[in-house]
């Protein structure tokens, strides 16, 4: 029996620096043994892999992350002449690398969050007491600015202290009257 169009499956494993591809190709019909060859674009990248049982042929590739979109396919061929078949091409996008750094983001984001929390805490513990002190000062000031008991006591105290001292020559003594408004 001639082979039918094979099916190509590709499993991609990305690391920080490399991209590992596992290519698997199988033809579900055709006389055994079947020989499989893997291609990148139209260039063979594997030697023929012969299978005497109906199981997928496997080929592993390791590439660096920098690159373009790659297209892979496989060819299945058995002993019958002129009955080789190619799989549908499968495109693989290169892994993000170089400019993007998923690992960097995993480290950078928690670090930035921690710095933000520290800055907020510092601001809260420095500004909050000052705000509370200002608010307390505002709450203590009276609403009207007439003589309060404290002010009358201060002026009375000044008058008593001055009463015991000698008067300045040329000035006649007067009674001290609080005049704060």
Could you walk me through the main structural features you see in this protein, from its secondary elements to its overall organization?
The structure is a single chain. By secondary structure, this protein is an alpha+beta fold. It has two domains: 7-92, Immunoglobulins (Immunoglobulin-like); 101-141. The protein contains two helices and nine strands, in the order E-E-E-E-E-E-E-E-E-H-H. Strands 3, 4, 5, 7, 8 and 9 form a six-stranded antiparallel sheet that branches. The protein has a three-stranded antiparallel sheet with strand order 1-2-6, with no helix packed on it. The longest helix is centred in the last third of the chain and has 39 residues, at 102-140. The chain crosses the membrane at residues 107-128. This is Mast cell antigen 32. Pfam families: Ig_C17orf99. Keywords: Glycoprotein, Membrane, Signal, Transmembrane, Transmembrane helix.
Short descriptors:
2 helices; 2 domains; 3-stranded antiparallel beta sheet; 6-stranded antiparallel beta sheet; rod-shaped; 181 residues; Immunoglobulin-like; alpha+beta
Layout of helices and strands:
Elements (H helix, E strand, L loop, with lengths): L6 E8 L3 E9 L7 E7 L2 E2 L4 E3 L5 E8 L5 E8 L7 E2 L3 E3 L9 H39 L8 H15 L18
Antiparallel strand pairs: 1-2, 2-6, 3-4, 3-5, 3-7, 7-8, 7-9
InterPro entries: Ig-like_fold, IL-40-like_Ig
Protein name: Mast cell antigen 32
Keywords: Glycoprotein, Membrane, Signal, Transmembrane, Transmembrane helix
- Tell how many strands the DSSP assignment holds: 9
Uncertain spans: none
Distance between the termini: 116 Å
CATH superfamily of the largest domain: Immunoglobulins
CATH class of the largest domain: Mainly Beta
> What is the radius of gyration?
45 Å
- The overall pLDDT, averaged over residues, is 79
CATH architecture of the largest domain: Sandwich
**CATH third-level topology of the largest domain:** Immunoglobulin-like
Counting structural domains, the number is 2
DSSP summary: helix tally: 2
Morphology: rod-shaped
Largest sheet: 6 strands, antiparallel
Helix % is 25-40%
Q: Structural class, judged by helices and strands?
A: alpha+beta
User: What share of residues are in beta strands?
Assistant: 25-35%
Q: Tell me the series of helices and strands, N- to C-terminal.
A: EEEEEEEEEHH
